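Q: What would this chain look like folded?
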Amino acid sequence: MDSEDTFRGDSYCGLYCGACEVLTLYRDSLTTGKAASWEDLPKPLQEVIPPDYSIVCRGCKTDLVSPGCRGCEIRACARKRKVDACVLCPEYPCRLVEERRANMADDLEDILPHIRSKFPPPEPIRAVGFEAWRGEQARRWTCPDCGTPFTWYQENCRECGRKLDALKEYAARNR
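A: My prediction, written as structure tokens:
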């Protein structure tokens, strides 16, 4: 079980949870003492998340997971197999991953482009090692000008104001 102050930025499927608005809002709420609410979510997420959704999460690899991720079959499978990420599983890409890839609706990817980052090709991750790849994800989601972490749908850095869209691989890849 994770300690009360643990946050995990990495996930099993390849998304970087450290850039998730729900995780970030929850972490910020603990710092400021102001509870995060549905209204704090960016518009794309408000389109798919119901208003009564609990804005609580410490990341996919912790015991406090957002309501939308609690029932994730990928997460359950990886935990059962005791792998740190799907790409490290000898069966990757398995039937479950292939089914999820096939069923990711284009219209959902249009609303939530960050999900295009799920299930990355294993070769680059295996070549550099999972720990190095995880570190690269943390760097990728940090403003290069001031070092402030940013989220999937944040347009400008909260600290320095830099425009962030060009730094988002899934956004740049799909223009």
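Confidence is low (pLDDT under 50) at residues 171-175.
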